Amino acid sequence: MSDYKRLYRKAGHYFFTVVTHNRQRLLTETANIKRLRNAFRQAQSRHPFLLDAVVVLPEHIHCIWQLPENDNDFSTRWRLIKRYFSVGIANSLNERKEKQVWQRRFWEHLLRDEDDWRRHMDYIHYNPVKHGNARRPVDWPYSSFMRAVERGYYSADWGAFEPPNITGLQVE
C-alpha cells in the first residue's frame, strides 16, 4: 500500500493526469467525448471548479482546475466525473465489483506560482503533438487550446516545436 499524501489547498490551482484502465483507448470516440463533457458538467454543478485547461487523448486526460476559495476537495470531483462517465460503459468488473474503466487513482500537482501554471498549460496544449496525435496543437479537437488562443495565451501557430519550458517534464 502506498503512503502517498495528497496536498490539499483551498482555492488551489491543480494539474491532474487521469488515465483509463490499462490505457484503453476510450476517450476520443464521439459518444465518449460527449459522455465525458456531460460528466464534467454534472460534477461542476454539484461541486463547482474552474477548468483552466484540458486535453483529452485516447487513453488519458490532463487538466488544470482552480478550486473555490473555501474548498479543497478535488478527490470527490474526480470520483464523480469517473462515475458519471462510466455509466453506460460495458466494461468488466474487478474483484471489488468496480467497472474497469479508469485507473483507480489519479496524479495531481499543486501549482506553486504563475511560472508553474504556465509550464503545465504549455504541457497540456502540446501533449497531442508529443504523443503523435497531431502535428500542431491547433489540429487536435479535444483540447482547450483554441479557447486559450482566444484569451490571448497563445498564437494559433504556437507549438510546432516542443516549448523549452516543458522539456523533461514528466507528469504521465
Quick structural gist:
The protein has 172 residues and is of the alpha+beta class. Helix content is 31%, strand content 15%.
Q: Distance between termini? A: 20 Å
Can you tell me the CATH superfamily? Transposase IS200-like
User: Domains counted in the coordinates: how many?
Assistant: 1
Provide the structure class: alpha+beta
- Overall 3D form: globular
Reported by name, the CATH topology is Alpha-Beta Plaits
Order of helix and strand elements from N to C terminus: EHEEHEHH
Low-pLDDT regions: none
Largest sheet: 4 strands, antiparallel
Report the average pLDDT across residues: 91
Number of strands: 4
What does this structure look like?
With about 170 residues, the protein is an alpha+beta fold. The protein has a single domain (about 15-155), classed as Alpha-Beta Plaits (2-Layer Sandwich), CATH 3.30.70.1290. It is about 30% helix and about 15% strand. Strands 2-3-1-4 form a four-stranded antiparallel sheet, covered by helices on one side. A hairpin with a 3-residue loop joins strand 2 and strand 3. Helix 1 packs antiparallel against helix 2 (about 75-85). The longest helix is centred in the first third of the chain and has 17 residues, at about 30-45. The chain is globular and about 45 Å long.
